[in-house]
Amino acid sequence: MSRKTNPMLAATAFAVLLLADAPAFAGTVTKTFNATASVAANCVMSNIANLDFGSYDPVVANASTALPGNTSFTLTCTKGASPVVLMSIGNANFGGNLAGKRSMNNGTATAGNYLSYDLYTPSGVGASGSVSPTATLWGDGTGGTGTFSPSVPSVAAQTVTIFGAVTAGQDVPVGSYTDSVTATVNF
Known about the structure:
Radius of gyration: 34 Å
CATH topology: Immunoglobulin-like
Number of domains: 1
Helix content: under 10%
Shape: elongated
Order of helices and strands: HEEEEEEEE
Oligomer: single chain
Largest sheet: 6 strands, antiparallel
Strand content: 25-35%
Number of helices: 1
CATH class: Mainly Beta
């Protein structure tokens, strides 16, 4: 006679053995808890390059036409942050040549050694080919200047373009001109 094992009977016997060693519970208590975290706004500015206008020609090319230029930086912020981008205006060169204008200096702090220019807020975020300058002078929000507040739909990096123009028709001497501007992001 052959011995056949009933699989159902074997599984039941195994379960009974497991339960025999299990402790007996008198009751059950449950408690719910919350997992919490907070996300703070944060922004990082990177890859900012100098704004190099190139060669200014007061005799022909820029006698009646401003010299445009632009640079950009990368802005990465927490999704939903509210960044406000400011450009410093308080420096020794401000209004050095034309009142109310930014000015680059050629190293000689006397009248006639300043090359005036302006910075303009962009129409949105993106590289210079996809956005354009607005008529708003970019500064710190004082003295007739505005600021730039891009929306932040995701944590993805955004390009912020800084547009500028050297004012046409300036009677300035030969030399290299420079100015220092500080870009600040408040968030």
